[in-house]
């Protein structure tokens, strides 16, 4: 009785497996390997059914048929498993193509973003800048005339406000598309950005590098510059740090950058939350990934953050 139940259960399970296998034939686009495997499942189910017949009737089973069903099922399984490698190779090929397409799309987005920043910075500098300069000259002319002290003070305040506006436009234009990066390279661009931050007593940044005046592909320089600036901005906005250490080292065919601050830090399990609160980590990762780089980010509460990334250089 126990054998009968076991055989009946085996028949049900193998029929169920055969039905699922047949259903997947369509999903695999009628791939030959899966057709063989599905046929093997069906043959096994038939074999189990033939085994079960003597338990419920007086009919006898042909032993040779029983043996041949097992042999053929084994052959179908073996051939199917051998051919199924093609499915895995095809899946790997599709996955590689998908990753390559995503990388190209990401690269195109970043390139378009940088182009638009450069265009906007130029329009801002060349369009609004001269207008404010013209207004400033007009105010200077008016200031030379005789006015009462109150009027002179108003003119001086207006002149000062225009000076601040011109300075702000230059800074915004420089941040959007740093001309120093384009004209003088990565080292001077990063040092220029850091020098502005170091004017603030709250945060002091130490930057060391061995790249000197060496130039790299524009994409590489822009990505590294943007990532360093993003990390610094994150520290200023969130970390409440007093010291930052940045090293940028050229070693072989890679540029390696290490960033550390002594700020508040955070629990690594809250990384997802940080992604959602505007820390910009996902933006940094996407930029580095677009150039086949690697990025690591670690932090502990009270021990600040440490970030490191490597990018293959393109001269």
Secondary structure: helix percent: 55-70%
Radius of gyration: 35 Å
Strand order of the largest sheet: 1-2-3-5-4
DSSP, total strands? 5
Give the end-to-end Cα distance, rounded to a whole number of Å.
78 Å
User: What fraction strand?
Assistant: 5-15%
The CATH topology of the largest domain corresponds to: Heat Shock Protein 90
Report the CATH C-level class of the largest domain: Alpha Beta
Total tally of structural domains: 3
Which class do the helix and strand fractions yield?
alpha+beta
Count the DSSP helices.
10
What is the global morphology?
Answer: elongated
In the CATH hierarchy, what is the architecture of the largest domain at level 2? 2-Layer Sandwich
**Low-pLDDT residue intervals, each spanning 5 or more residues:** 272-279
The CATH superfamily of the largest domain bears the name Histidine kinase-like ATPase, C-terminal domain
Mean pLDDT: 77
- Give a short account of the largest sheet: 5 strands, mixed
The run of helices and strands is: HHHHHHHEHEEHHEE
List keywords for this structure.
Heat Shock Protein 90, alpha+beta, 315 residues
Task: Describe it.
- It is a single chain.
- The longest helix has 59 residues, at 85-143.
- The protein has ten helices and five strands.
- It folds into three domains: 2-83, no CATH class; 115-176; 180-312, Heat Shock Protein 90 (2-Layer Sandwich).
- The protein has helices at residues 2-27, 32-56, 63-83, 85-143, 149-176, 179-184, 186-198, 218-239, 271-276, 281-289; strands at 204-209, 243-251, 254-261, 294-299, 305-312.
- A hairpin with a 5-residue loop joins strand 4 and strand 5 (305-312).
- Residues 272-279 have low confidence and may be disordered.
- Helix 1 (2-27) packs antiparallel against helix 2 (32-56) and helix 7 (186-198) packs parallel to helix 8 (218-239).
- The protein has a five-stranded mixed sheet with strand order 1-2-3-5-4, with helices on one face.
């Amino acid at each position: 009785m126990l054998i009968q139940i076991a055989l009946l259960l085996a028949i049900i399970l193998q029929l169920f497996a055969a039905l699922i296998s047949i259903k997947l034939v369509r999903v695999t686009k009628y791939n030959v390997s899966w057709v063989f495997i599905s046929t093997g499942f069906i043959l096994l189910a038939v074999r189990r059914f033939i085994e079960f017949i003597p338990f419920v009737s007086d009919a006898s089973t042909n032993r040779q048929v029983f043996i041949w069903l097992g042999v053929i099922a084994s052959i179908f399984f073996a051939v199917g498993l051998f051919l199924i490698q093609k499915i895995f190779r095809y899946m790997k090929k599709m996955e590689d193509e998908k990753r390559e397409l995503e990388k190209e799309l990401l690269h195109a987005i970043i390139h378009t973003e940088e182009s638009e920043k450069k265009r906007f910075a130029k329009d801002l500098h060349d369009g609004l800048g001269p207008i404010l300069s013209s207004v400033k000259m007009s105010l200077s002319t008016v200031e030379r005339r005789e006015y009462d002290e109150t009027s002179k003070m108003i003119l001086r305040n207006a002149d000062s406000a225009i000076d601040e506006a011109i300075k702000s436009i230059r800074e915004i234009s420089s941040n959007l598309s740093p001309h120093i990066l384009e004209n003088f390279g990565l080292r001077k661009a990063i040092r220029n950005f850091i020098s502005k931050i170091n004017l603030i007593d709250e945060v002091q940044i130490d930057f060391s590098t061995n790249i000197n005046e060496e130039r790299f592909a524009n994409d590489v320089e822009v990505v590294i510059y943007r990532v360093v600036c993003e990390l610094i901005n994150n520290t200023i906005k969130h970390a409440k740090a007093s010291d930052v250490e940045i090293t940028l080292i050229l070693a072989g065919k890679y540029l390696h950058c290490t960033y550390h601050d002594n700020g508040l830090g955070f629990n690594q399990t809250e990384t997802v939350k940080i992604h959602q609160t505007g820390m910009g980590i996902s933006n940094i990762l996407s930029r580095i990934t677009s150039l086949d780089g690697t990025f690591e980010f670690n932090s502990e509460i009270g021990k600040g953050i440490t970030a490191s990334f490597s990018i293959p250089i393109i001269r």
